[in-house]
UniProtKB/TrEMBL annotation:
GO terms for cellular component: plasma membrane. Residues 4-252 form the ABC transporter domain. CDD domains: ABC_Mj1267_LivG_branched (cd03219). This is ABC transporter-like protein. Keywords: ATP-binding, Nucleotide-binding, Transport. It comes from Calderihabitans maritimus. It comes from the Bacteria. GO terms for molecular function: ATP binding; ATP hydrolysis activity. PROSITE patterns: ABC_TRANSPORTER_2. The keyword Methyltransferase does not apply.
Length: 255
């Protein structure tokens, strides 16, 4: 059974078709890559999955439940978390506080409850702190937990953003170009964390990435988009041999 299923997704902006009839199935535990040239529709597809965009046509199922009409926060509560192409953290706040904010989807008492609920809120806060400390260990960012995010290097900020998505304990993690703008060493670290998230935390991952070396190294399955259509899919080996994919994208990426 697929964890996530997209059926015939169409998305229009005015007269422009950003996505034309995309169907796909993501299985539990997969690292599932979406690749394709600029403007192919990758981010639009991710936005349809997270709920930021509502498809013009088609349906989306998560754990066999139709989520097509659910808003982003309800999808997040079901276990779908995302990171953004451009870092969207609170730069003046510490690493720890940014990660604690990532826990808010799990707080029953809410951020501003007081009085009567104080005891429960305090207990939840302590539990949340445990979860976040475990993520801090996992991402090896113990020594920067009290630093304001804005003072960190780009690579570390991306790692904190990953941590914030992980703080939601997602079943499905959506990563939009997690390695963009990184140097080789930072990319290697990020690739290792993605593999560890998949293996140790048993989280399914959908990944948009332009670095083909990384994609082919770490993905289980690759889907290729071009002009809003799916032009190929398969294992990394299959996709690299697909003439349509080579013509539309890989030839250009390799050259
Ligand atoms: N909010 C929007 N309003 C209007 N058009 C949009 C919007 N978002 C995306 N598009 C259009 O939809 C098409 C697909 O864009 P999208 O950003 O999904 O591609 P992409 O594959 O993620 O590209 P890149 O690799 O450059 O990030 C493009 O033609 C783009 O101009």
């Amino acid at each position: 059974m697929g964890l996530l299923r997209l059926e015939n997704i169409h998305l229009y902006f005015g007269g422009v078709a950003a996505l034309s009839g995309i169907s796909l199935e993501v299985h539990p535990g997969q690292i599932f890559a979406i690749i394709g040239p600029n403007g192919a529709g990758k981010t639009s597809l991710l936005n349809c999955i997270s709920g930021l965009y509502r498809p013009s046509r088609g349906a989306i199922f998560f754990e066999d439940r139709d989520i097509t009409h659910l808003p982003p926060h309800k999808r997040a509560a079901l276990g779908i978390a995302r990171s953004f192409q451009n870092i969207e953290l609170f730069k003046h706040m510490t690493v720890l506080d940014n990660l604690m904010l990532g826990r808010h989807v799990h707080m029953r008492t809410g951020l501003f409850s007081g009085g009567l609920y104080w005891g429960r809120a305090q207990k939840e806060e302590i539990e949340n702190r445990w979860v976040v400390e475990e993520i801090i260990d996992f991402l090896e960012i113990e020594n920067i937990r009290y630093k304001p995010v804005g003072t960190l290097s780009y690579g570390l900020q991306k790692r904190v953003e990953l941590g914030r998505a992980l703080a939601m304990n997602p079943k499905l993690l959506l990563l939009d170009e997690p390695m963009a703008g990184m140097n080789v060493e930072e990319k290697e670290d990020m690739a290792r964390f993605i593999l560890d998230i998949s293996e140790e935390r048993e989280t399914t991952i959908i990944l948009i990435e332009h670095d083909m070396g990384v994609v082919m190294d770490i993905s289980d399955w690759v889907t290729v988009l071009d002009f809003g259509r799916k032009i190929g899919e398969g294992t990394p080996e299959e996709v690299q041999r697909n003439p349509k994919v080579i013509e539309a994208y890989l030839g250009e990426a390799a050259g």
